[in-house]
Specification:
This is Zinc finger protein 771-like. By secondary structure, this protein is α+β, with helices and mostly antiparallel strands. The protein contains 6 helices and 11 strands. The chain folds into 2 domains: 2-72, 2-Layer Sandwich (Double Stranded RNA Binding Domain); 77-138 and 150-167, Double Stranded RNA Binding Domain (2-Layer Sandwich), CATH 3.30.160.
Length: 168
């Protein structure tokens, strides 16, 4: 029960905005001490996790687990639409936009929409010199993916992993 109570207390902080763990070197704040410990390594340069197969080192275990997939060839994310396999969930999310037509990045100058942040960054160069030129990632913006495009995606809202299928 104690583990559940701790998890609930951490969850409550997401609603209250309370972030009691503070970095002594910058303005970073977080709800978890473990997140602060990893963050502090950005200042110290400490990278305690070393890959046994190459010279890669990292500050957090999660990054090491993702890196290990390079050596194992593990690609746990499979597109339900075309069967393309991917190593990272973020790559899967970006890939799915090719099927759904979702373009969440919106130029606040001209309304141009893009599926990927890099595409929007390149587009923003067309507004170089325009004061206040910026863009948003706004999935609720007008002109977003239509309901018919979303329903076309249907089965794409689930991720196939090597351990089964789960909601995206």
């Amino acid at each position: 029960m104690a583990a559940r109570k701790g998890s609930m207390n951490r969850h409550i902080k997401t609603h209250t905005g309370e972030k009691p763990f503070v970095c002594g070197k910058c303005d970073f704040r977080t709800t978890r001490k473990s997140n602060l410990d990893v963050h502090v390594r950005t200042h110290t340069g400490e990278k305690p996790f070393a890959c046994p197969d190459c010279d890669y080192r990292t500050a957090d275990k999660s990054s090491m687990n993702k890196h290990a997939r390079i050596h194992t060839g593990q690609k746990p994310y499979t597109c339900g639409e075309c069967g393309h396999k991917m190593t990272l969930k973020s790559t899967y999310t970006r890939h799915m936009r090719t099927h759904t037509g979702e373009k969440p990045f919106v130029c606040m100058v001209c309304g141009y929409r893009a599926a990927q942040q890099g595409t929007m960054d390149r587009h923003m160069m067309t507004h170089k010199g325009v004061k206040g030129a910026r863009y948003l990632k706004d999935t609720a913006a007008p002109g977003q993916t239509s309901d018919s495009q979303k329903s076309k995606a249907g089965s794409n809202s689930r991720i196939k992993t090597e351990n089964g299928t789960k909601d995206a």
